[in-house]
Amino acid sequence: MSDRAYVAERILPDEEPPAASIGFVGWLRANLFDGFWNSMLTVAAALILIRFVPPLVDWLFLDAVWGDAPPDACREAAGACWAVIWEKHRLILFGRYPYQEHWRPVLGMAILITLVGFSCNRANWRAWLVGAWALGLAAFFALMWGGFFGLTFVPNVLWGGLPLTLLLAIIGIVVAFPVSMLLALGRRSHMPVIRAICVCYIELIRGVPLISLLFMASFMLPLFMPTGVNIDAMLRAQIAIIMFSSAYLAEVIRGGLQAIPRGQFEAAEAIGLGYWKMQRLVILPQAIRLVIPPIVNTFIGLFKDTSLVAIVSLTDLLLATRQAVSDPLWRAYFVEGYIFIAIIYFCFCYFMSKYSQYLERQFYTGQTRN
């Protein structure tokens, strides 16, 4: 008998893997009970969940007061009082904007969200998108201000709630991003004056908290303005947010620029591309692709930092909630109000996070996600 025939006779038949290593049981062993310490942590986590989750579910849902209910019903209930949201949702979402005109900020927010949705589709990244943003923002401000076509004029001191938060965040992102690219390029410039200006700006702004910038813009800047010249408070806060965010984004983009191999610069110069064309077509697209996660992380931080404008008396979503739950009849149920706006913040931030992951997959950044 040849060696080959002998080996063929000795080959064992295929067998199924052990039952404990496949299916649901296998997943449990691989993820939750893989070793002594992992098993102990799993048991401890299960005990914590059993201890705290059922009472939390009871408080949030089963024993809660829903719908249009008086404060007395909430005092007698053992759970959350979601009736405060039913009663105060207009004040929370729209601040001091006139009650009869709430359809205008609703339509304005729909325009802003639609613009963001169109911008998230890569197929729409064309020159016409800039014009669409210009028209959309013009329509938003026209609706919010009014004063024509029978619309009542509403000064922006009465704007508040979610429309103001979205406005500050979206304009901050749209304006700060291109400014940050110029700052990042300026910091890497070979011209000493340009580089020094960009370095001083970035380090100065990054060295102070956003609160200090908002205070300077709201209270100190008017003192240095000529007599009779006054800059709107909302515009001053918006400028402070743009300055703060652009400084942080500039460092993120500079990190992406430093990660580009020198050969990319030399190849672009070899085919005769000028500085700005090289940056626009070759360098910046690669750099931004490399730093998508930190860029979106900065955007998320910017969206949440808009709540700081409450300290300069702008009625954003957070301050509107504070005003809503300051009603003596509903003051005891402030937790429910803050949970409500926390869900709103989470929804927007979660969308940005998932979109960041989508862009990473689209641009083949080489990041493998489990």
Outline the secondary-structure elements.
Blueprint: H1 3-10, H2 23-31, H3 36-62, H4 71-76, H5 83-94, H6 103-120, H7 128-145, E1 160-161, H8 162-187, H9 192-206, H10 210-224, H11 233-259, H12 262-270, H13 275-290, H14 292-305, E2 315-316, H15 317-324, H16 334-362
Question: How is this structure best described in words?
Answer:
With 370 residues, the chain is mainly alpha-helical. It has 2 domains: 17-74, no CATH class; 84-97 and 154-362, MetI-like (MetI-like fold). Helices cover 69% and strands 1% of the residues. The chain has 16 helices and 2 strands. A two-stranded parallel sheet has the order 1-2. Helix 15 packs antiparallel against helix 16 (334-362). The model has no long low-confidence stretch (mean pLDDT 89).
Brief summary:
By secondary structure, this protein is mainly alpha-helical.
Mean pLDDT: 89
Quick one: overall form?
A: flat
Counting structural domains, the number is 2
Oligomer: single chain
| Count of separate DSSP helical elements | 16
Report the CATH topology name of the largest domain. MetI-like fold
Strand residues, percent? under 5%
Under CATH at level 1, the class of the largest domain stands as Mainly Alpha
Q: Can you tell me the residue ranges where pLDDT is under 50 for at least 5 consecutive residues?
A: none
Distance between the termini: 51 Å
Instruction: Tell me the CATH superfamily of the largest domain.
Output: MetI-like
Secondary-structure element order, as H and E? HHHHHHHEHHHHHHHEHH
Q: How is the main sheet built?
A: 2 strands, parallel
User: Helix/strand/pairing class, anyone?
Assistant: mainly alpha
Relative helix content: 55-70%
